[in-house]
Amino acid sequence: MLPEGWKCQTVADICRMQNGNGFGPEDWGTEGYPIIRIQNLNGGNSFDYYSGPVESRWLVEPGQLLFAWAGTKGVSFGPTRWKGRTGVLNQHIFKVKPQDGIDEGWLYWTLRHVTDRIEAHAHGFKATLVHVKKSDIDSQEVFVPDLPTQRWIARTLQMWDDALATTEKLLANSRRQRHDLMQGLLSGHRGFGAKSSRWTQPDFDKLFERITRKNTVGNQNVLTISGQHGLIGQRDFFNKSVASENLQGYTLLELGDFAYNKSYSAGYPVGAIKPLLAYESGVVSSLYICFRIRPDVEADADFFRHYFEAGMLNDAITGIAQEGARNHGLLNVSVKDFFKLKLRVPAIETQRRIAEVLNTAESEERCIAQQLENLKREKRALLADLLTGKRRVRLPEATAEPEAA
Q1: Angle (nearest 5°) at CA 342 between 187 and 194
Q2: Which part of the chain is the Type I restriction modification DNA specificity domain (predicted)?
Q3: If exposure means fewest CB atoms within 10 Å of the residue's CB, which of 176, 179, 328, 331 is most exposed?
Q4: 8 Å CB contact between 15 and 98
Q5: Is the pTM of this model over 0.85?
Q6: pLDDT tens digits, 329-354
Q7: d(C-alpha 179, C-alpha 173), whole Å
Q8: What distance lies between CA 385 and its chain's CA centroid?
Protein backbone atom coordinates (compact mmCIF):
# COMPACT_ATOMS: atom_id res chain seq x y z
CA MET A 1 0.00 0.00 0.00
CA LEU A 2 1.39 3.38 -1.01
CA PRO A 3 1.23 6.24 1.48
CA GLU A 4 -1.55 8.72 0.88
CA GLY A 5 -0.75 11.14 -1.93
CA TRP A 6 1.84 8.89 -3.62
CA LYS A 7 1.45 7.85 -7.26
CA CYS A 8 2.71 4.90 -9.24
CA GLN A 9 4.34 6.24 -12.41
CA THR A 10 7.14 5.35 -14.83
CA VAL A 11 10.54 6.89 -15.38
CA ALA A 12 9.19 8.42 -18.60
CA ASP A 13 6.56 10.25 -16.51
CA ILE A 14 9.04 11.92 -14.17
CA CYS A 15 11.93 12.91 -16.44
CA ARG A 16 13.05 13.37 -20.01
CA MET A 17 16.23 11.70 -21.28
CA GLN A 18 18.20 12.89 -24.32
CA ASN A 19 21.04 10.88 -25.81
CA GLY A 20 24.43 12.42 -26.45
CA ASN A 21 26.04 12.80 -29.85
CA GLY A 22 28.10 10.20 -31.69
CA PHE A 23 31.44 12.00 -31.92
CA GLY A 24 33.73 10.23 -34.38
CA PRO A 25 37.51 10.47 -34.85
CA GLU A 26 36.96 13.27 -37.36
CA ASP A 27 35.50 15.37 -34.51
CA TRP A 28 38.33 14.84 -32.07
CA GLY A 29 40.80 17.60 -31.43
CA THR A 30 42.86 19.32 -28.77
CA GLU A 31 40.77 22.48 -28.37
CA GLY A 32 37.16 23.33 -27.57
CA TYR A 33 34.76 21.48 -25.29
CA PRO A 34 35.85 18.21 -23.65
CA ILE A 35 33.88 15.21 -24.96
CA ILE A 36 32.29 13.50 -21.96
CA ARG A 37 32.49 9.71 -22.26
CA ILE A 38 31.44 6.96 -19.84
CA GLN A 39 34.95 6.62 -18.40
CA ASN A 40 34.87 10.32 -17.48
CA LEU A 41 31.82 9.75 -15.28
CA ASN A 42 34.07 7.73 -12.93
CA GLY A 43 36.75 10.39 -12.61
CA GLY A 44 38.76 9.61 -15.75
CA ASN A 45 40.47 12.81 -16.86
CA SER A 46 41.54 11.84 -20.37
CA PHE A 47 39.54 13.81 -22.94
CA ASP A 48 39.29 14.47 -26.64
CA TYR A 49 37.96 17.91 -27.52
CA TYR A 50 35.33 19.19 -29.93
CA SER A 51 35.54 22.68 -31.43
CA GLY A 52 32.67 22.53 -33.95
CA PRO A 53 29.09 23.84 -33.74
CA VAL A 54 27.33 22.77 -30.52
CA GLU A 55 23.67 21.85 -30.06
CA SER A 56 22.13 22.67 -26.67
CA ARG A 57 21.05 19.07 -26.12
CA TRP A 58 24.71 17.98 -26.11
CA LEU A 59 25.93 20.72 -23.82
CA VAL A 60 26.57 19.63 -20.22
CA GLU A 61 27.10 22.11 -17.39
CA PRO A 62 28.61 21.23 -13.97
CA GLY A 63 25.98 19.57 -11.76
CA GLN A 64 23.96 18.21 -14.69
CA LEU A 65 22.23 14.88 -14.01
CA LEU A 66 23.34 12.19 -16.48
CA PHE A 67 22.48 8.54 -17.01
CA ALA A 68 24.87 6.05 -18.64
CA TRP A 69 22.75 3.40 -20.36
CA ALA A 70 25.75 1.22 -21.22
CA GLY A 71 28.48 0.51 -18.72
CA THR A 72 29.93 -1.75 -16.05
CA LYS A 73 27.58 -2.97 -13.36
CA GLY A 74 28.12 -1.15 -10.08
CA VAL A 75 30.69 1.17 -11.64
CA SER A 76 29.59 3.23 -14.63
CA PHE A 77 26.04 2.14 -15.48
CA GLY A 78 23.28 4.41 -14.15
CA PRO A 79 22.90 8.00 -12.90
CA THR A 80 25.60 10.46 -11.93
CA ARG A 81 25.96 14.18 -11.36
CA TRP A 82 28.56 15.69 -13.66
CA LYS A 83 31.37 17.20 -11.57
CA GLY A 84 33.66 18.33 -14.38
CA ARG A 85 33.67 21.52 -16.38
CA THR A 86 31.30 22.39 -19.22
CA GLY A 87 31.56 19.84 -22.03
CA VAL A 88 29.66 18.03 -24.75
CA LEU A 89 28.00 14.65 -24.25
CA ASN A 90 29.02 11.53 -26.13
CA GLN A 91 26.57 8.77 -27.08
CA HIS A 92 25.62 6.01 -24.59
CA ILE A 93 24.87 8.70 -22.01
CA PHE A 94 21.54 10.45 -21.46
CA LYS A 95 21.15 14.02 -20.34
CA VAL A 96 18.34 13.93 -17.74
CA LYS A 97 15.83 16.71 -17.11
CA PRO A 98 13.14 16.38 -14.39
CA GLN A 99 9.51 17.02 -15.28
CA ASP A 100 7.48 19.68 -13.46
CA GLY A 101 6.84 18.75 -9.84
CA ILE A 102 9.92 16.52 -9.63
CA ASP A 103 12.86 17.41 -7.37
CA GLU A 104 16.17 16.73 -9.11
CA GLY A 105 17.81 15.41 -5.94
CA TRP A 106 14.99 12.91 -5.41
CA LEU A 107 15.13 12.00 -9.11
CA TYR A 108 18.81 11.09 -8.80
CA TRP A 109 18.10 8.66 -5.95
CA THR A 110 15.06 7.22 -7.73
CA LEU A 111 17.19 6.52 -10.82
CA ARG A 112 19.78 4.98 -8.51
CA HIS A 113 17.07 2.65 -7.19
CA VAL A 114 15.96 1.85 -10.76
CA THR A 115 19.59 1.10 -11.66
CA ASP A 116 19.89 -1.38 -8.78
CA ARG A 117 16.72 -3.10 -10.02
CA ILE A 118 17.99 -3.34 -13.61
CA GLU A 119 21.41 -4.61 -12.50
CA ALA A 120 19.82 -7.23 -10.24
CA HIS A 121 18.07 -8.73 -13.28
CA ALA A 122 21.13 -8.61 -15.55
CA HIS A 123 22.36 -12.05 -16.61
CA GLY A 124 24.78 -13.68 -19.02
CA PHE A 125 27.27 -11.19 -20.44
CA LYS A 126 25.04 -8.46 -18.97
CA ALA A 127 25.96 -9.61 -15.47
CA THR A 128 28.95 -7.27 -15.58
CA LEU A 129 28.47 -5.16 -18.71
CA VAL A 130 24.96 -3.70 -18.69
CA HIS A 131 23.56 -2.37 -21.98
CA VAL A 132 19.88 -1.46 -22.19
CA LYS A 133 17.48 0.34 -24.49
CA LYS A 134 15.86 3.64 -23.58
CA SER A 135 12.49 1.90 -23.38
CA ASP A 136 13.92 -0.48 -20.75
CA ILE A 137 14.56 2.53 -18.52
CA ASP A 138 11.48 4.58 -19.41
CA SER A 139 9.12 1.72 -18.58
CA GLN A 140 10.46 1.17 -15.04
CA GLU A 141 7.80 1.82 -12.39
CA VAL A 142 8.52 4.31 -9.62
CA PHE A 143 6.52 5.58 -6.64
CA VAL A 144 6.22 9.37 -6.62
CA PRO A 145 5.40 11.36 -3.46
CA ASP A 146 4.54 15.07 -3.26
CA LEU A 147 7.31 17.61 -3.79
CA PRO A 148 8.04 18.41 -0.09
CA THR A 149 8.39 14.69 0.64
CA GLN A 150 10.69 14.28 -2.36
CA ARG A 151 12.93 17.02 -1.00
CA TRP A 152 13.01 15.48 2.47
CA ILE A 153 13.94 12.07 1.05
CA ALA A 154 16.67 13.61 -1.12
CA ARG A 155 18.10 15.56 1.82
CA THR A 156 18.10 12.48 4.07
CA LEU A 157 19.85 10.28 1.52
CA GLN A 158 22.38 13.00 0.77
CA MET A 159 23.27 13.12 4.49
CA TRP A 160 23.96 9.38 4.36
CA ASP A 161 26.00 9.85 1.22
CA ASP A 162 28.06 12.54 2.95
CA ALA A 163 28.65 10.19 5.89
CA LEU A 164 29.81 7.50 3.46
CA ALA A 165 32.19 9.92 1.74
CA THR A 166 33.66 10.95 5.11
CA THR A 167 34.16 7.31 6.14
CA GLU A 168 35.76 6.49 2.79
CA LYS A 169 38.24 9.34 3.35
CA LEU A 170 38.99 8.02 6.84
CA LEU A 171 39.62 4.55 5.40
CA ALA A 172 41.89 5.91 2.65
CA ASN A 173 43.85 7.89 5.25
CA SER A 174 44.13 4.84 7.53
CA ARG A 175 45.42 2.73 4.63
CA ARG A 176 47.92 5.40 3.68
CA GLN A 177 49.19 5.66 7.26
CA ARG A 178 49.55 1.89 7.58
CA HIS A 179 51.38 1.73 4.24
CA ASP A 180 53.80 4.44 5.39
CA LEU A 181 54.33 2.64 8.70
CA MET A 182 55.02 -0.63 6.89
CA GLN A 183 57.53 0.93 4.52
CA GLY A 184 59.32 2.79 7.30
CA LEU A 185 59.41 0.10 9.99
CA LEU A 186 60.03 -2.92 7.77
CA SER A 187 62.89 -1.24 5.91
CA GLY A 188 64.55 -0.10 9.14
CA HIS A 189 64.24 3.57 8.22
CA ARG A 190 61.98 4.10 11.23
CA GLY A 191 62.91 2.61 14.56
CA PHE A 192 62.18 2.78 18.25
CA GLY A 193 64.89 5.15 19.36
CA ALA A 194 68.66 5.26 19.31
CA LYS A 195 69.00 1.74 20.70
CA SER A 196 67.25 0.01 17.82
CA SER A 197 68.87 -3.36 17.15
CA ARG A 198 71.16 -4.10 14.26
CA TRP A 199 69.55 -5.68 11.18
CA THR A 200 71.03 -8.78 9.53
CA GLN A 201 70.75 -10.21 6.00
CA PRO A 202 70.31 -13.97 6.23
CA ASP A 203 69.44 -16.18 3.27
CA PHE A 204 65.75 -17.09 3.08
CA ASP A 205 66.43 -20.75 3.84
CA LYS A 206 68.14 -19.84 7.12
CA LEU A 207 64.77 -18.77 8.54
CA PHE A 208 62.29 -20.78 6.46
CA GLU A 209 62.00 -24.38 5.30
CA ARG A 210 60.11 -25.59 2.26
CA ILE A 211 56.84 -27.51 2.66
CA THR A 212 56.52 -30.42 0.25
CA ARG A 213 54.01 -32.66 2.06
CA LYS A 214 51.39 -34.03 -0.32
CA ASN A 215 47.69 -34.33 0.33
CA THR A 216 47.69 -37.94 1.49
CA VAL A 217 44.88 -37.28 4.00
CA GLY A 218 42.28 -36.42 1.34
CA ASN A 219 41.83 -32.77 2.36
CA GLN A 220 39.16 -31.18 0.11
CA ASN A 221 39.66 -27.53 1.17
CA VAL A 222 41.29 -26.18 -2.01
CA LEU A 223 42.83 -22.75 -1.34
CA THR A 224 43.51 -19.81 -3.60
CA ILE A 225 45.36 -16.56 -2.88
CA SER A 226 43.30 -13.37 -2.77
CA GLY A 227 44.90 -9.96 -2.29
CA GLN A 228 42.16 -8.94 0.14
CA HIS A 229 41.36 -12.25 1.87
CA GLY A 230 44.72 -14.04 1.78
CA LEU A 231 44.62 -17.82 1.50
CA ILE A 232 40.92 -18.57 1.16
CA GLY A 233 38.95 -21.64 0.16
CA GLN A 234 37.88 -21.67 -3.48
CA ARG A 235 34.31 -22.55 -2.49
CA ASP A 236 34.20 -19.54 -0.18
CA PHE A 237 35.76 -17.23 -2.79
CA PHE A 238 34.27 -18.49 -6.06
CA ASN A 239 31.24 -20.36 -4.64
CA LYS A 240 32.67 -23.41 -6.38
CA SER A 241 35.90 -25.37 -6.71
CA VAL A 242 37.94 -24.78 -9.87
CA ALA A 243 40.57 -27.37 -9.00
CA SER A 244 41.05 -30.80 -10.52
CA GLU A 245 39.13 -33.75 -9.05
CA ASN A 246 42.29 -35.57 -7.96
CA LEU A 247 43.88 -33.53 -5.14
CA GLN A 248 46.57 -36.02 -4.08
CA GLY A 249 49.29 -34.06 -5.86
CA TYR A 250 48.35 -30.82 -4.09
CA THR A 251 50.48 -29.47 -1.24
CA LEU A 252 48.94 -29.72 2.23
CA LEU A 253 49.18 -26.59 4.36
CA GLU A 254 48.52 -26.17 8.06
CA LEU A 255 47.61 -23.11 10.11
CA GLY A 256 50.41 -20.53 9.95
CA ASP A 257 52.15 -21.96 6.86
CA PHE A 258 52.99 -19.57 4.01
CA ALA A 259 52.38 -19.94 0.27
CA TYR A 260 53.81 -17.92 -2.63
CA ASN A 261 51.67 -17.63 -5.77
CA LYS A 262 53.99 -16.73 -8.65
CA SER A 263 51.14 -15.23 -10.70
CA TYR A 264 51.27 -11.44 -10.71
CA SER A 265 48.08 -9.48 -10.10
CA ALA A 266 46.88 -5.99 -9.21
CA GLY A 267 48.94 -4.76 -6.25
CA TYR A 268 51.27 -7.76 -6.46
CA PRO A 269 53.62 -7.23 -9.43
CA VAL A 270 55.72 -10.32 -8.63
CA GLY A 271 53.00 -12.42 -7.00
CA ALA A 272 51.64 -12.61 -3.46
CA ILE A 273 52.91 -14.37 -0.33
CA LYS A 274 50.19 -15.13 2.22
CA PRO A 275 49.95 -17.19 5.43
CA LEU A 276 47.13 -19.63 6.13
CA LEU A 277 45.06 -17.99 8.88
CA ALA A 278 41.40 -18.72 8.12
CA TYR A 279 41.48 -22.54 8.36
CA GLU A 280 43.26 -25.27 10.29
CA SER A 281 44.41 -26.79 7.00
CA GLY A 282 43.96 -26.72 3.24
CA VAL A 283 45.63 -27.65 -0.04
CA VAL A 284 47.19 -25.56 -2.81
CA SER A 285 48.43 -26.22 -6.31
CA SER A 286 51.94 -27.61 -6.62
CA LEU A 287 52.76 -24.45 -8.61
CA TYR A 288 52.82 -22.54 -5.31
CA ILE A 289 56.07 -22.34 -3.33
CA CYS A 290 55.13 -23.23 0.25
CA PHE A 291 57.20 -22.71 3.40
CA ARG A 292 57.15 -22.22 7.17
CA ILE A 293 59.41 -20.80 9.86
CA ARG A 294 62.05 -23.32 10.84
CA PRO A 295 61.29 -24.96 14.21
CA ASP A 296 64.79 -24.15 15.49
CA VAL A 297 64.51 -20.44 14.54
CA GLU A 298 63.03 -17.69 16.71
CA ALA A 299 61.06 -15.44 14.36
CA ASP A 300 57.78 -13.56 14.59
CA ALA A 301 55.19 -14.82 12.10
CA ASP A 302 53.23 -11.54 12.11
CA PHE A 303 56.40 -9.58 11.36
CA PHE A 304 57.00 -11.67 8.25
CA ARG A 305 53.33 -11.55 7.27
CA HIS A 306 53.63 -7.75 7.12
CA TYR A 307 57.12 -7.99 5.58
CA PHE A 308 55.86 -10.01 2.60
CA GLU A 309 52.65 -7.97 2.27
CA ALA A 310 54.69 -4.74 2.08
CA GLY A 311 56.57 -6.14 -0.92
CA MET A 312 59.95 -6.11 0.80
CA LEU A 313 61.00 -9.06 -1.40
CA ASN A 314 59.71 -7.63 -4.67
CA ASP A 315 63.05 -6.34 -5.96
CA ALA A 316 64.83 -9.55 -5.02
CA ILE A 317 62.19 -11.71 -6.73
CA THR A 318 62.36 -9.52 -9.83
CA GLY A 319 66.09 -10.19 -9.90
CA ILE A 320 65.69 -13.97 -10.00
CA ALA A 321 62.72 -14.13 -12.36
CA GLN A 322 64.13 -15.21 -15.69
CA GLU A 323 63.89 -12.66 -18.48
CA GLY A 324 60.85 -13.17 -20.68
CA ALA A 325 59.43 -15.71 -18.25
CA ARG A 326 56.01 -14.12 -17.81
CA ASN A 327 53.79 -16.76 -19.33
CA HIS A 328 50.06 -16.15 -18.84
CA GLY A 329 50.85 -14.11 -15.73
CA LEU A 330 53.12 -16.76 -14.17
CA LEU A 331 56.67 -15.78 -13.19
CA ASN A 332 59.42 -18.32 -13.73
CA VAL A 333 60.95 -18.31 -10.24
CA SER A 334 62.87 -21.47 -9.30
CA VAL A 335 62.58 -22.93 -5.82
CA LYS A 336 66.36 -22.96 -5.45
CA ASP A 337 66.70 -19.26 -6.27
CA PHE A 338 63.72 -18.34 -4.09
CA PHE A 339 65.20 -19.96 -0.99
CA LYS A 340 68.49 -18.14 -1.54
CA LEU A 341 66.88 -14.70 -1.54
CA LYS A 342 68.38 -12.25 0.94
CA LEU A 343 66.19 -11.06 3.79
CA ARG A 344 66.81 -7.99 5.93
CA VAL A 345 65.52 -8.50 9.45
CA PRO A 346 66.07 -7.17 12.99
CA ALA A 347 66.39 -9.10 16.24
CA ILE A 348 63.33 -10.95 17.53
CA GLU A 349 62.48 -8.27 20.10
CA THR A 350 62.31 -5.63 17.38
CA GLN A 351 60.34 -7.94 15.11
CA ARG A 352 57.72 -8.28 17.84
CA ARG A 353 57.52 -4.54 18.48
CA ILE A 354 57.13 -3.81 14.75
CA ALA A 355 54.46 -6.51 14.43
CA GLU A 356 52.57 -5.07 17.41
CA VAL A 357 52.50 -1.56 15.90
CA LEU A 358 51.42 -2.83 12.48
CA ASN A 359 48.80 -5.16 13.95
CA THR A 360 47.28 -2.19 15.78
CA ALA A 361 47.21 -0.10 12.58
CA GLU A 362 45.73 -3.04 10.68
CA SER A 363 43.01 -3.51 13.31
CA GLU A 364 42.06 0.17 13.16
CA GLU A 365 41.85 0.02 9.37
CA ARG A 366 39.71 -3.12 9.53
CA CYS A 367 37.35 -1.41 12.00
CA ILE A 368 36.85 1.58 9.68
CA ALA A 369 36.32 -0.74 6.70
CA GLN A 370 33.61 -2.58 8.65
CA GLN A 371 31.95 0.73 9.55
CA LEU A 372 31.92 1.61 5.87
CA GLU A 373 30.31 -1.71 4.92
CA ASN A 374 27.68 -1.26 7.61
CA LEU A 375 26.88 2.24 6.35
CA LYS A 376 26.56 1.00 2.78
CA ARG A 377 24.26 -1.82 3.80
CA GLU A 378 22.08 0.45 5.94
CA LYS A 379 21.88 3.07 3.18
CA ARG A 380 20.79 0.48 0.62
CA ALA A 381 17.98 -0.59 2.92
CA LEU A 382 17.01 3.02 3.67
CA LEU A 383 17.05 3.89 -0.04
CA ALA A 384 14.64 1.07 -0.86
CA ASP A 385 12.36 1.86 2.10
CA LEU A 386 12.14 5.59 1.45
CA LEU A 387 11.61 5.35 -2.30
CA THR A 388 8.92 2.68 -2.07
CA GLY A 389 7.05 4.28 0.83
CA LYS A 390 7.77 1.42 3.25
CA ARG A 391 9.27 3.93 5.64
CA ARG A 392 6.42 6.37 6.04
CA VAL A 393 6.75 10.16 6.02
CA ARG A 394 4.24 12.49 7.63
CA LEU A 395 3.74 16.23 7.24
CA PRO A 396 2.95 18.02 10.51
CA GLU A 397 1.44 20.89 8.58
CA ALA A 398 0.37 21.27 4.97
CA THR A 399 3.19 23.70 4.21
CA ALA A 400 5.84 22.24 6.50
CA GLU A 401 8.76 20.01 5.63
CA PRO A 402 8.02 16.32 6.35
CA GLU A 403 9.36 14.38 9.30
CA ALA A 404 10.10 10.69 9.69
CA ALA A 405 7.12 8.84 11.11
Answers
A1: 35
A2: 3-170
A3: 328
A4: yes
A5: no
A6: 688 999 999 999 999 999 999 999 99
A7: 10
A8: 26
